[in-house]
Specification:
Structural class of chain A: alpha+beta
Largest interface: A-B, 36 and 35 residues
Strand content of chain A: 25-35%
Helix content of chain A: 10-25%
CATH topology of chain B: Methylamine Dehydrogenase, Chain H
Number of domains of chain B: 1
Number of domains of chain A: 4
Largest sheet of chain B: 5 strands, antiparallel
CATH superfamily of chain B: YVTN repeat-like/Quinoprotein amine dehydrogenase
Oligomer: heterodimer
Number of strands of chain A: 28
Helix content of chain B: under 10%
Number of helices of chain A: 13
Chain lengths: 581, 371
């Protein structure tokens, strides 16, 4: 801190709500062509733990293009068939047996559970294969287990699996970035494993099924097919081959039983933090059910139940209800089997959801799970809530912070924390009896600057069968840290702050088209809700309620205010929302 | 009026008259009445008398999954051949009876999936040329096949088969025939000239492969046959100056690719207009002016390369077409209205709305002449 602010015993900066939490990733993956497709025959919600699946159709609506002889199989065996037998039964009419006992094409690739599910759905939509929901579920489980990806092979791409909304992918091969990621995410191919010849067959599928693909922008500026059928398969086969040590090692590892008690923490952008316990019980065959008992930073109790299947030994896909919210869970078990991390989202609104983290804990041992607010301003008093298990004993918030317990139970303690005026900014440990949490509390003097998360967001107009896609922004406060310089590594995050929000046109074009008037509304929590879909006769060119906007947050500080802006694109509807974009 | 202005006016008037004569001569139906033709989803074809500002006939296009795309009228204006069935069929309609007189499936083989990406008719009306993109669907995989141009006899009936075909480069999007019928031009990555009889690729004019210092290859995508009134094809392209940062106002330029379908003369020239998205351009019969459109309607002086006038239009339009006398510009594509603009002032004069507001999508506006 370099400004030498004088500590005041009392000061009010309006309502300054401090909430700790990680910020959602920023960005926009608008490379993808907006597309329509025939609605997929999604898995029955009651029976599926995978997200409902659609496949991309990067051109005008395509009819279902059946093979010359659409396949519909009706089987009433006297005994249930094994998954491998079902695979042969439903896929073997077209996919012929291979020398190694597999089926052509199918045996030559590995995918995530979502990837396999999308393949089956594509076979249904485009090739007329009628796979009943229960069979589809069995096949996905079988294929994801036998031909999945190792945990390390999904690293760097999980945000797409988790349906995170504003992602800018970086660090990919530039040729693949253009050839593949102008329509898909880079994760779409990076979450598959094939050898070069099989990747080439995928290129043939693209040009064979979507024959306008070569005419599109970023395709017609090059010899697209020549590149797609030579350079691209070679690169993909080299980067993402079928056989890898990571996969063979992972297949050889024993599978973890996830049953037990887990300590849960999470941050829901725009809503706040939550923490508590997750009890997992095994139902057999990698199926589980979980019960949540959570407390939110607004003081409410949140309970929930989930049914889940674990694919490939680590991919938790759950579906349940938290409070009155139907939700989907996309978590991954760490290779050690001790951490379960990922994201959940509202069933029909993938953009509304939360980071999630759970650690396997001893249900009888003391444990601090979460703290909020995790910041204390020097010279100020604040009620700090400590969530945990078996919380007994003295409470300490570290040097220079006086802690007075005002409420306590074994799972929740509320402490009136007061930091000295002279207290130095920095991180503090929290201790409750034998339980401790390192660097769990940040002591700070003032907000030096804010950043908005995401700094580049996207929202979509809604209407008809497609609801709007909202965009949640948060103003994250920072101190400059010991070096007194903003945007350096020693800066301390003081979490999301309550801010005054406003919208402005991003540029002159947006100003002329009155985007602020038509594109949607921004509420006090930083939630942007876009307008209705369809041509708007009131607008110039009768355009949709799209917009190019600045989202501006302003937070009061001792010296005035800290302000920053994010960029929001409000664009048209997207009818294809496959589990892997 | 200064002498030079007078001379210029005379010159323009002569050009106009010559252009008009040429236009009518090219159409070969100098005494027939001019109509405008367009198609719309799901299965409609509309014949319009633009001077009367009305639709004179509406046709139902037969067949499954119509979604009409491009079409070509026969030179005598009696038959229209339309790409339908999501680019997998060509249907011919008799303009008098409305009956289907021609039909061809792009994929007669059960395991081949073929789509049309370009259609043209010979000047004598006897042959149709279809640019086909094909793939074989094996039981467990696709196999991309060589793209080709298929030739159909227009008297092939309702189960017409290609009478010949020949290989053609990938990604062609527009076919056009020389007025003498001796050259079939195909615009794609480059601009190709085929012998329509032998199928020989006799010339390639580099476009994607056009190498210029500090200039990107031009970007061009044009599906619209809009040379009816002049037999001069023109298409806009965009090019980037690679030695300038993208933020530089001069970093991008709009140019015109031209082909005189009578003389075979081809040319490219960058314009002196601010870069903006413009989908199509149509040449006036006076051969001096051209009209380009998307969100703006821009009148361009082809001699100076400058924009003479620009007006905003009501919404995005893909196509600009022009009347035979050069006095009116018609806009179409995208939605269901066809506004009429004065060619000299770009004042909006009127508009025709298609009944039921069907989507014209990518269908062209074509001029035909009928008695």
């Amino acid at each position: 801190m370099t400004r030498g602010r004088q500590c005041k015993l009392t000061h009010f900066l309006g309502v300054l709500l401090l909430i700790i939490g990680s910020a959602s990733l920023a960005g926009c993956d608008e490379s993808e062509t907006d597309a329509q497709s025939t609605p997929p025959e999604a898995m029955s919600p009651a029976e599926s733990t995978l997200s409902s699946t659609s496949v991309d159709a990067p051109e005008t609506p395509q009819p279902v293009t059946p093979t010359p002889q659409p396949i519909s199989i009706t089987v009433e065996p006297s005994e249930p068939l094994a998954a491998s037998e079902l695979l042969s039964l439903y896929c073997g009419a077209c996919h012929t047996p291979t020398n190694n006992g597999g089926l052509s094409r199918i045996s030559n690739m590995r995918k995530t559970p979502e990837g396999w599910d999308m393949s089956i759905v594509r076979m249904s939509i485009f090739h007329g294969v009628d796979v009943p929901v229960d069979i589809r579920r069995t096949l996905v489980k079988y294929l994801a287990d036998a031909q999945g990806l190792a945990p390390s092979e999904t690293q760097g791409h999980r945000a797409v699996l988790e349906q995170r909304h504003n992602i800018i992918e970086t660090g990919f091969d530039e040729e693949l970035n253009v050839m593949c990621a102008r329509c898909h995410s880079n994760a779409r191919y990076a979450l598959q494993r094939r050898d070069t010849d099989e990747w080439n067959l995928l290129a043939n599928m693209h040009a064979g099924q979507w024959q306008s693909i070569e005419y599109q922008a970023l395709a017609r500026d090059r010899n697209w097919w020549e590149i797609a059928s030579t350079i691209v398969p070679e690169k993909l086969g080299s980067l993402y081959p079928l056989e890898t040590t990571a996969w063979s090692d992972w297949r050889a590892m024993p599978r973890e039983d996830l049953s037990g008690t887990w300590a849960v923490t999470g941050h829901w952008p725009g809503k706040g933090d939550y923490a508590g316990a997750m009890e997992i019980d095994a139902d057999g065959d990698d199926a589980y059910h979980a019960t949540y008992t959570l407390t939110t930073s607004s003081g409410d109790t949140l309970t929930g139940t989930t049914k889940a299947i674990v694919y490939t030994g680590y991919e938790w896909r759950g579906r349940g209800t938290w409070g009155d919210m139907p939700i989907r869970e996309i978590f991954a078990l760490s290779e050690e089997g001790t951490e379960l991390t990922g994201r959940w989202h509202i069933e029909d609104s993938f953009e509304i959801g939360s980071d999630f983290s759970a650690s396997r804990v001893d249900a009888n041992a003391p444990h601090i799970t979460s703290v909020w607010p995790a910041v204390v301003e020097s010279g100020e008093s604040v009620d700090v809530t400590i969530i945990g298990m078996n919380l007994e004993g003295d409470v300490s918030l570290g040097p220079d912070i006086k802690a007075q317990v005002t409420e306590r139970s074994a799972t929740k303690i509320i402490v009136r924390a007061k930091a000295k005026c002279s207290a130095a900014s920095g991180l503090r440990n929290i201790e409750v009896g034998d339980a401790s949490a390192q660097n769990a509390l940040t002591l700070y003097e003032d907000v030096d600057y804010i950043q908005i998360s995401p700094d580049y967001g996207i929202a979509r107009v809604g209407g008809g069968m497609t609801p709007p896609v909202t965009a949640q922004f948060e103003a994250i406060g920072y101190t400059n840290g010991p070096d007194g310089i903003a945007q350096t590594e020693d800066d301390l995050s003081i979490g999301p702050l309550q801010a005054e929000w406003r919208v402005e046109a991003y540029d002159e074009v947006a100003q002329a088209l009155e985007d602020v008037k038509y594109a949607g509304t921004l509420d006090d929590s930083g939630l942007f809700t876009p307008g209705d879909a369809g041509p708007n006769p009131e607008r110039k060119y009768g355009t949709n309620n799209v917009g190019d906007l600045k989202i501006i947050a302003s937070v009061p500080t001792y010296n005035g205010k800290a302000e920053n802006a994010a960029h929001l694109i409000v664009t048209v509807q997207k009818w294809n929302n496959p589990p892997i974009q | 009026m200064a002498a030079s202005d007078f001379k210029s006016s005379i010159t323009r008037a002569l050009l106009f008259c010559l252009g008009l004569m040429f236009s009518q001569s090219a159409a070969g139906v100098s005494h027939a009445k001019e109509y405008l033709l367009t198609a719309a989803k799901p299965d409609r074809l509309f014949l319009m008398d633009m001077s009367a500002r009305k639709i004179v006939r509406e046709y139902k296009i037969p067949g499954p999954m119509i979604a009409p795309m491009t079409f070509v009228p026969s030179p005598d204006g009696k038959t229209v051949y339309i790409v339908t069935n999501r680019e997998k069929s060509i249907t011919g309609i008799d303009m008098d009876s409305g009956a289907q007189v021609f039909s061809a499936d792009m994929s007669p083989e059960f395991d081949i999936r073929t789509k049309n990406f370009g259609l043209e008719i010979s000047p004598d009306g006897k042959e149709l040329y279809s640019y086909d993109v094909a793939a074989r669907l094996h039981p467990d995989r696709y196999e991309v096949l060589e793209s080709r141009i298929s030739v159909f006899a227009t008297d092939g009936g309702v189960q017409a088969k290609a009478i010949r075909s020949f290989a053609a480069p990938r990604r062609i999007h527009l076919l056009m025939m020389s007025t003498d019928g001796n050259s079939l031009y195909a615009l794609g990555k480059d601009f190709y000239t085929f012998d329509p009889v032998s199928g020989e690729l006799v010339d390639t004019y580099p476009f994607l492969n056009w190498k210029r210092p500090n200039m990107s290859p031009p970007d061009l995508l044009n599906f619209w046959p809009l040379w009816d009134q002049t037999m001069i094809f023109r298409s806009l392209y965009t090019v980037a100056r690679t030695n300038l940062p993208p933020t530089d106002p001069n970093a991008f330029a709009v140019g015109i690719l031209s082909l005189d379908l009578k003389s075979g003369e081809m040319g490219v020239e960058e314009l002196k207009i601010p870069p903006e998205v413009l989908f199509t351009i149509v040449t006036s019969p006076n051969r001096r002016d051209a009209f380009a459109v998307f969100n703006n309607l821009v009148k361009i002086d082809l001699e100076t390369g400058e924009a003479v006038k620009t007006v905003e239009v009501d919404h995005s339009y893909y196509i600009a077409q022009i009347s035979g006398d050069g006095r009116e510009v018609y806009l179409g594509g995208t939605m269901c209205d066809i506004p009429i603009y004065a060619a000299d002032t770009l004042e909006k004069l009127d508009q025709i709305e298609l009944p039921g507001c069907p989507d014209m999508a990518g269908s062209p506006l074509k001029i035909i002449h009928r008695d």
